[in-house]
Each structure stands twice: as structure tokens, then as C-alpha cells.
Design goal:
Elements: E1 8-14, E2 17-23, H1 27-32, E3 34-35, H2 45-56, E4 62-68, E5 71-79, E6 95-103, H3 112-122, E7 130-135, H4 142-145, H5 149-161, E8 166-168, H6 173-176, E9 182-187, H7 193-203
Parallel strand pairs: 3-5, 6-7
Antiparallel strand pairs: 1-2, 2-4, 4-5, 5-6, 7-9, 8-9
GO molecular function, one term: transferase activity
InterPro entries: AcuA (IPR024699), Acyl_CoA_acyltransferase (IPR016181)
Keywords: Transferase
Length: 210
């Protein structure tokens, strides 16, 4: 399918400073920005920046960023699921994954994550997609927030829910390995019934539970 992308931008005031929230951002622009040293949930900052640049260059790839001047302090990524994951088995060109969302600690109190998502879904083209997010507690920054795993889960549900993402049941072993993990998804308004059925099938391998 085609992958049209419309750019959006907004400003946001936070305790850490005034931010620009923008995207989808081109790989050339991402390369020119610095990457905040506190963005370490998935990889060391330099490696994560490199990963974002590569995702931004994919036809379906979308990177929305929050930046303070020329330093990226938060981001959210969208791309096709990893071919090794079950979510790729449906071979759906209208299923993309919210692969990561991260905000550096000094900027977390200003609705930055919600604004990143809001900018993402302002693009009407996102209504062509079924967007999934696999949430694993081991990626959550429980230590610096002081939240319990259950409180953090509720925070994530609220943030994701702000753009219409909902929890869906699955028998995926990584998600079922801990009750705090969850599969969330947003079914775009133009996603057809056949695609929804394929998504329902890939959520469960043991059809007894389907």
C-alpha cells in the first residue's frame, strides 16, 4: 500500500523547557539533531539515534520527536513488525507497530508522551492502519518514577488510550509471561473487516481460546 505522510508540529511548555513536537521527521533531519543522554530504555543513545534514522528511512516508517532546541528529548516510532515476531505472520500491509515511545526523565511531567501520540494520529492516513503496541514491563522506568509495575501499567493505558488505543487479549508468550504486559491496538476507521479478522487470528495460536 502507499505510505502517505503528513507533517505536523506543535509547541509544548514543560518544566524542563519549551519543546517542539514534530513529525514524521525525515532521516536527514534526525541525523542533524543531538540525542538526549537520558534516552536509554532500549539502547544507548547513539545506537538508538541510529535506529531511529533507519526507521525514518523506511517507506512505512514514522518518527515523531520532541526536541529542546536541537536535542531530541522524546520520540515515538512506527514501522512494520519485526519479521521474527508473530505480528508479521498475518502479512498485512496495513498493520504497523508502535515500536517504542520514550521521554527523557526531566521532561516527563508535561504531557510529552501524550502530545507525541496526538501529533502521530493527527495524520488522517493513520486511519488506514491497524496500529499495535506490545507493552512489556521490563522496558518501563520503574526506578526513576518510583511507581509500582501496576501503577505504571495504568499510566501507559491512560497515555495510549488518549489516542484510542485499547487492550486486546492474546496468547503471545512474551505478553502472557507477566500480567503487567499488554497488547494494545488502535483500529483505524478505514481498516476493513478482513484485516480485523486476520489480526484476531494472529493474536491467538491456540484457537481454543479464540
Amino acid at each position: 500500500m502507499e505510505h502517505p505522510k503528513s507533517y505536523f508540529v506543535t509547541e509544548l511548555s514543560t518544566a524542563g523547557g519549551d519543546l517542539i513536537i514534530e513529525g514524521p521527521v525525515a532521516p536527514e533531519l534526525l541525523s542533524a539533531y543531538e540525542f538526549h543522554e537520558g534516552l536509554t530504555a532500549f539502547r544507548i543513545p547513539d545506537k538508538q539515534k541510529q535506529a531511529l534514522v533507519e526507521i525514518a528511512g523506511l517507506p512505512e516508517g514514522r518518527i515523531i520527536i520532541a526536541r529542546h532546541d536541537r536535542t531530541i528529548v522524546g520520540y515515538v516510532t512506527y514501522l512494520y513488525p519485526d519479521p521474527m515476531e508473530r505480528w508479521a505472520e498475518a502479512q498485512m500491509d496495513n498493520l504497523i507497530e508502535l515500536g517504542a515511545i520514550e521521554v527523557a526523565a526531566p521532561y516527563r511531567s508535561g504531557s510529552v508522551a501524550k502530545t507525541l501520540l496526538d501529533i502521530s494520529f493527527r495524520d488522517d492516513a493513520m486511519n488506514d492502519y491497524l496500529v499495535i503496541s506490545t507493552e512489556y514491563y521490563w522496558h518501563w522506568d520503574l526506578e526513576s518514577t518510583g511507581l509500582s509495575v501496576w501503577a505504571y501499567k495504568e499510566v501507559m493505558k491512560k497515555i495510549m488510550g488518549s489516542v484510542g488505543m485499547e487492550m486486546f487479549a492474546t496468547d503471545d508468550p512474551e505478553i502472557t509471561s507477566h500480567p503487567a504486559n499488554m497488547l494494545m491496538a488502535r483500529i483505524g476507521s478505514r481498516v476493513d473487516l478482513d484485516s480485523i479478522e486476520k489480526f484476531n487470528e494472529v493474536r491467538f495460536r491456540n484457537r481454543f481460546f479464540y
